[in-house]
Amino acid sequence: MPVPVTGEQLAVLNGQGPLDAALGYAALGWPVFPVAPVDLGTGRCGCKKGAACEEPGKHPLVHWTQRATTDARQLRDWWHWQPHANVGVATGQASGLVVVDIDPHHEGDLTRKALEAAGHAFPPTLTARTRSGGWHLFYLAPEGRRVANTTGSLAGVGSTPGIDVRGDRGYIIVAPSVRPTSPDPATGAPRFGRYQWVASDDALAGAPGWAVVGRPREPVTGRPAPSPASAPEKRAAAALGAEVRRVRSAGEGERNVVLFQAAANLFEICNTGWLDEAQVRAELTEAGLAAGLSASEISGTLRAQWHRKQGVVRPGWPARGGPGPRPARGPLPGRRAGLGEGGYGR
Ligand SMILES: [Zn+2]
Q1: pLDDT band at 188, cuts 50/70/90?
Q2: What is the torsional sign of CA 166, 169, 175, 177?
Q3: Cα(169)–Cα(147) distance, rounded to whole angstroms?
């Protein structure tokens, strides 16, 4: 459970260096980790891809799902090694935070209006401006529920162009991180934007129900001894492991095709109920990044496949008791389907 804090208090971090800010977040109980810095002369990313990186300043420098921490000594070590590293915060179960990411460059502001008109509220809460003029709304994750990471659509809501949700096994870039925006149109010189907290009296509000669509989490205590995994459960885990390994080790010419095929196979298994969609997305995203694909390529492929595979069940797989195949999602009234846009956190 995060420590209570207002936007006014967080805005102090806007003017601090990355290490001091990271320590500030850690003091609130938010697990943090270093993210590739950007060279303010050239705009070049500090990740392995360097100048070829398509999403400068957003690649984790460590395996964040395991290593995001509130340990001050670890944070000092990391930022000693990379003093200008951007700051990432793990979302979902790790921090108790859910972030609604509104990107006006992908019509997120229009989507917000459409959602509000449909009765889906955006309660006032801790808010940051993103480097490109978007908004990150930080909410308290609901107790005992998984929160899926979503990109451009939400179960029960439909297509949400320009609005993503970061939940379990997700992360978000926070102030005072810097990332490039569009280059100067006259000179072509790189320009930069900074993530900044909005100084307001608002504190962390509970996440609105429409944004947290994950399934109930298994209770941690009072649970019967684990029963041996059923045959389909084992097969599903094995299929996930095998596809993730294939994507990770795919070469440059084939990696997008391999990801495309892996997503198709695994989403069909998700539709039987034997795999969790959020987990499949998270693992394929990590594997794709490791193979050198950009976050926007990966999210585009996953989104397209998820839409293609609505209700399609893998042959030879029994439906698991419970939700069964998911119904197809309709777009919001008057909104176009959100296929093919970029990644998240911009
Ligand atoms: Zn990079």
Answers
A1: confident
A2: negative
A3: 9
